[in-house]
Specification:
- The structure holds 2 protein chains of 2 kinds.
- Chain A contains 24 helices and 14 strands.
- By secondary structure, chain A is an alpha/beta fold.
- In chain A, a hairpin with a 2-residue loop joins strand 3 and strand 4.
- The N and C termini of chain A lie far apart (59 Å).
- Chain B contains 6 helices and 9 strands.
- Chain B is globular and about 55 Å long.
- In chain B, the strands form 3 sheets. Chain B has a 5-stranded mixed beta sheet, with no helix packed on it. In chain B, strands 6-9 form a two-stranded antiparallel sheet.
- Chain B is α+β, with helices and mostly antiparallel strands.
- Chains A and B meet through helix 4, helix 18, helix 19 and helix 20 of A and helix 2, strand 7 and strand 8 of B.
């Protein structure tokens, strides 16, 4: 690996992506793909080529999980470590792999061959456990598949020569509704919206239809799509920007993966319709780094649509209707699913949520009017243009029109994607997916709500249970304290660190949960958890911090015995563990006899 | 309810006038009203990361340094609940870094310490993180002690916006968030930083210090030794008496 080779690699990436500072993340990502880490010379050269301070480049490199500032390995393996993967035995399989490869998690092998690490959530919970090897997913892991992967790694076999069967990704769909079963042909919805905009109202008619349909954002927050689009359209600044949020990072969701894999045309159709409605000419898909393997296929669909006149200049022959889409790939950061953090990341920066006002519709990407919508929202928008608002409102409830894709995983017979009209009960979904002896459902992922049996009559709808679609089922074998503890660590790992309550508070929550697990906590610690959760909810900068304590508060309320049986009797128990502090001394002296321990209370 | 008066909002039941473009905190400070804050500095665009200035606006939590003032807003700041939250935020900052006030040259001039006293913090409450953060003493005239950095970003903003140098940037994520120094070596000595830079004068804590300036003003006679940070009226007199360089 010569220095000139590194420079040439940076130069090639700059050649592809351009030398604007906004391309920093894409350039670093490509260098990472080539070398499996970012050598200092690459950071220096990228800073020079993009005209950025080196401190800023290093700051970005240290922000994203998939960018490494230290060598990893020729085979870089990321083990999905979300709650569902763990329920399916990922921890044992990770141990088995590390044992066979003779490595510790997070530490590259001494020969630089392989590095095995944990990743928050890779996006395949319905075929858990899963891993990425050099960004290619392998799912449905079991001992045999782990052994095979280890064999291939130790034989130094190039990834291209690995059995294709290893990389097969299933798309389990168990219930199709109007969205997943629509036979829409590429261009149909665009032509429908162009026809609509030929009326007296012009392109406003496109927005009117979206408004009449009462389309609410499918990412989870449920903002009124039409209001967002109109606000963007009203800005007197051009170009305007349409962004598709394909950073499906909420643990438990994978329905966008299905849409991007099997319905990419519908996604781009919706984006193009949005461009017509808002008068935008610039489009981006922000694809989560975990879905890097979809990049080429998405680019192919875009190329095909350009050739068919569905993107580019004068779309569908309409003079002045110019719009194109570029796919940007993220690099491992949950917070980038927050719309303004996503825009920061698109600008090549650390993904820190912005202050509002201004809203993105006023000043978004590079200060331009920008709309950011979920993958599923664009699909729904395309169908609304094609079939009309009245058709759309026939599905769902009065307040939540249309359907919702649910990503069902966990303890059930048929995990996969289910499309339901809004208003479906939790019980119905549980029955359909073959869930038995269910004690809890985490609806909306770690940032959502923990439901117990009394809640199963509730409905998935904006007026009751708002959700981005994650639906994780837990049966009576599961310990909901451990689930909540896992979520606490997830938020601590994923906090962007911008604001004090989230940066420090999420770590304190994780430590308190560990203290409870270790049997060293008291009732006082449960109160402290409640106080920290309240602080996070009230004072955090964005939704990540606001919701970081939710699962803890929910489980404390609904599964309190799972906490209480771990408590010791004392009123207050210090966090400092005197005997634990001697562990290092014991390691150094090779002792573990009773004399090397403090006397333990009986 | 009567019509809200033009360009006036209510802060803890009292009228505060504001000018167009001002945020709640800016207007409050201009009117001589104190809302606790750390990352805010009147010369820089607010960015709202420390969250100490959190208030409730019409009943909902909001960051007062970044929330635009609007006529008729009902802002609460001095409530027990909010001060409890602020005290906890200060405690979080104390346990996150390594803050040993008795041996810190900034003691008495330090806004973190002053805020802690002012909010009645008597213990750090949570277990310390004891992070391992090496000191950068490479520069002949300046010392960087990252142990005390509270990541307020004021030096980053000052260096970029006033000095035009970009000596600092923030890097990393979560608890790993840290101050980056803009040189290939990562050391301050290899940057174009200078003692007279604005960036070197805005640190609210003892993370950026001038070398060989120790204890020019004795402890006990420093700014916040003489009056609490929350009393801006008395603060003016104190500031005339003893100022940090």
């Amino acid at each position: 690996m010569g220095v000139s080779g590194i420079d040439a690699c940076v130069d090639a990436a700059v050649e592809r992506w351009g030398s604007a500072p906004t391309q920093l993340l894409q350039v670093l990502r490509e260098v990472q793909e080539r070398y499996r880490w970012l050598p200092p010379a690459a950071l220096d050269h990228a800073a020079r080529r993009l005209g950025l301070p080196i401190a800023r480049v290093r700051g970005v490199a240290a922000f994203y999980d998939f960018l490494a500032t230290k060598p990893t390995g020729a085979y870089h393996i990321l083990f999905s470590d979300d709650v569902v993967d763990r329920m399916h035995g990922s921890a044992d399989l990770l141990g088995r792999m590390c044992h066979q490869l003779w490595v510790e998690p997070g530490k590259p092998s001494e020969d630089g061959l392989v590095c095995v690490e944990r990743a928050s959530f890779l996006g395949f919970p319905e075929q858990a456990p899963s891993l990425l090897v050099n960004q290619r997913p392998i799912t449905r892991l079991d001992q045999a598949r782990i052994d095979l992967v280890c064999e291939l790694v130790l034989a130094r076999k190039p990834l291209a020569e690995w059995p294709a069967e290893l990389f097969v990704i299933e798309q389990a769909v168990h219930r199709k509704g109007p969205l997943l079963s629509d036979p829409l042909q590429p261009g149909e919805a665009i032509r429908a919206s162009i026809a609509r905009s030929d009326g007296a109202a012009g392109a406003q008619a496109v927005l009117d239809e979206i408004n009449r349909a009462n389309l609410l954002g499918r990412g989870g927050a449920g903002f009124t799509t039409g209001v967002k689009w109109e606000s963007c359209r009203r800005q007197q600044v051009e170009p305007r920007v349409v962004v598709c949020n394909a950073d499906e990072g909420e643990p438990g969701t994978f329905k966008d993966r299905l849409l991007l894999s099997n319905h990419a045309d519908l996604v781009f159709e919706g984006m193009t319709v949005a461009a017509l409605g808002t008068g935008a000419s610039l489009g981006f898909v922000y694809l989560r780094g975990e879905y890097r393997y979809l990049f080429e296929s998405l680019c192919e669909v875009l190329e095909r649509r350009r050739a068919a006149g569905l993107l580019g200049h004068a779309i569908c022959g309409r003079a002045g209707f110019d719009f194109d889409v570029q796919v940007h790939v993220g690099a491992g950061s949950y917070v980038c699913g927050e719309a303004s953090a996503l825009v920061e990341s698109l600008e090549g920066k650390r993904g820190i949520p912005r202050n509002r006002p201004p809203r993105l519709a006023e000043k978004g990407y590079l200060g331009l009017p920008t709309i950011v919508n979920n993958v599923e929202t664009y699909c729904a928008a395309a169908l609304i243009q094609q079939h009309g608002a009245d058709w759309f409102r026939r599905h769902g409830t009065a307040k939540s029109s249309g359907t919702k894709l649910l990503s069902v995983s966990g303890d059930c017979e048929r995990p996969g994607v289910y499309e339901y009209p809004f208003g479906v009960t939790v019980r119905q979904v549980l029955d359909d997916c073959g869930a038995h002896r269910t004690i809890a459902v985490q609806c909306g992922g770690p940032s959502g709500r923990c439901l117990e049996q009394d809640d199963f009559a509730r409905r998935i709808a904006f007026e009751d249970l708002e959700t981005g679609g994650a639906f994780i089922v837990f049966d009576d074998r599961r310990d909901m304290f451990e689930v909540a503890r896992h979520f606490a660590h997830f938020f601590a790992d994923e906090s962007c660190g911008f604001c004090t309550p989230c940066r420090v508070g999420t770590s304190l929550l994780a430590r308190l949960m560990d203290k409870i697990r270790d049997g060293r906590a008291s009732e006082h610690d449960l109160q402290t958890i409640g106080e920290l959760a309240r602080l996070l909810h009230g004072a955090s900068h964005c939704g990540l911090g606001e919701s970081a304590g939710k699962a803890l508060v929910d489980t404390l309320q609904k599964f309190r015995p799972a906490y209480e049986r771990r408590l010791i009797a004392h009123g207050v128990e210090p966090a400092f563990d005197l005997d634990g502090a001697l562990a290092r001394a014991r390691r150094m002296t090779g002792r573990d006899d009773p004399g090397a321990h403090l006397e333990q209370p009986a | 309810m009567s019509e809200p008066m033009a360009n006036v909002f209510e802060l803890d039941g009292e009228h505060v006038p504001f000018e167009a473009g001002q945020t709640i905190l800016q207007a409050a400070l201009a009117a001589g009203r104190h809302i606790p804050h750390l990352c805010f500095h009147p010369e820089f665009r607010p960015h709202g990361s420390c969250k100490l200035c959190t208030v409730t606006v019409n009943g909902s939590h909001a960051t007062s340094c970044t929330t635009p003032a609007r006529a008729g807003l009902n802002v609460a700041s001095g409530t027990r609940e909010l001060n409890d939250e602020r005290r906890m935020l200060v405690q979080l900052l104390f346990v996150e870094g390594n803050h040993f006030c008795p041996s810190c040259e900034k003691s008495g001039h330090c806004k973190l310490q002053a805020a802690a006293y002012d909010l009645g913090m008597t213990s750090p409450r949570f277990d310390h993180f004891f992070p391992d953060r090496p000191v950068d003493a490479s520069h002949p005239e300046l010392l960087l002690d990252f142990n005390r950095c509270i990541l307020c970003e004021l030096c980053v903003r000052a260096s970029a916006e006033v000095d035009g140098k970009h000596v600092f940037a923030l890097g990393g994520r979560g608890l790993g968030k840290h101050l980056e120094v803009n040189s290939a070596s990562g050391r301050l000595a290899d940057t174009d930083a200078a003692v007279a830079d604005k960036a070197m004068a805005v640190c609210p804590v003892g993370a950026i210090l001038r070398k060989r300036q120790g204890f020019a003003v004795p402890i006990g006679r420093r700014r916040y030794d003489r009056c609490p940070i929350s009393e801006p009226g008395r603060r003016v007199q104190a500031a005339v008496a003893e100022e940090t360089p």
